[in-house]
Write a structure and sequence with these properties.
Distance between the termini: 63 Å
Largest sheet: 2 strands, antiparallel
Shape: globular
Order of helices and strands: HHHHEEHHH
Strand content: 5-15%
CATH class of one domain: Mainly Alpha
CATH topology of one domain: Arc Repressor Mutant, subunit A
Length: about 150
């Protein structure tokens, strides 16, 4: 976790609470922008739909990846997992009091957020299987498999 405690001291927190953003929450837990984007997308879906099931995960995130992120959110206290659905909750420990206040403000806010702007550098396409059986060949891999053409004089 990349928590910068000074950002959540009383004065900066009051300023941040005026316009809470999922990006700020994701930046606490992930340094990598792609990971933060995926985590944000899942939390935003859970917020919009009042819960998310694995079968309702957006298509650009693999189910196994979504499960890993959703289980992590349960572990840190952002979500609870009941009846096969992940639902927003607010179970936080004392050291995260101000972070919890910010997250709660985001949960209660009605502002629309555009993740494509907030995570401009994130990869949004689904990654294909990297190995094993049935993995689709990449265009680069197909070029390597082709035999070089030789010119005969």
């Amino acid at each position: 976790m990349a928590i910068k405690y000074w950002e959540f001291e009383d004065a900066p927190l009051k300023e941040k609470l005026k316009s809470p953003s999922i990006k700020e929450i994701a930046k606490i837990f992930f340094d990598n922008e792609t990971e933060a984007y995926r985590f944000s997308l899942l939390l935003l879906e859970a917020k919009r739909k009042k819960g998310i099931r694995l079968k309702d995960v957006p298509e650009n995130i693999p189910i196994a990846t979504a499960k890993r992120y959703l289980d992590y959110a349960v572990q840190i206290g952002l979500l609870k997992h009941e009846d096969g659905a992940y639902i927003l909750t607010d179970r936080y420990t004392r050291p995260f009091r101000n972070i919890a206040a910010y997250i709660k403000a985001w949960m209660d806010s009605e502002a629309e957020e555009d993740l494509s702007i907030q995570f401009a550098g994130a990869r949004r396409e689904k990654q294909f299987k990297r190995g094993g059986r049935g993995a689709p060949a990449s265009p680069a891999g197909e070029q390597e498999k082709q035999e070089p053409t030789s010119q005969h004089s």
